[in-house]
Amino acid sequence: MASAEYVTVRFGGLVAVNDASVPVPEGKIVGLIGPNGAGKTTLFATIAGFQRPNAGRIVFAGRDITRLPPHRRARLGIARTFQIVQPFAGLTVRENIAVGAHLRHVARAEALAAAEAVAQRVGLEPLLDLPAAALTVAGRKRLELARALATEPRLLLLDEVLAGLNPSEVRDMIPVIRAIRDDGVTVLMIEHVMQAVMALAEEVHVLAEGRIIARGAPEAVARDPAVIEAYLGHGAAARLAGAADA
Question: Can you supply a Gene Ontology BP term from the record (predicted)?
Answer without folding.
Answer: L-valine import across plasma membrane
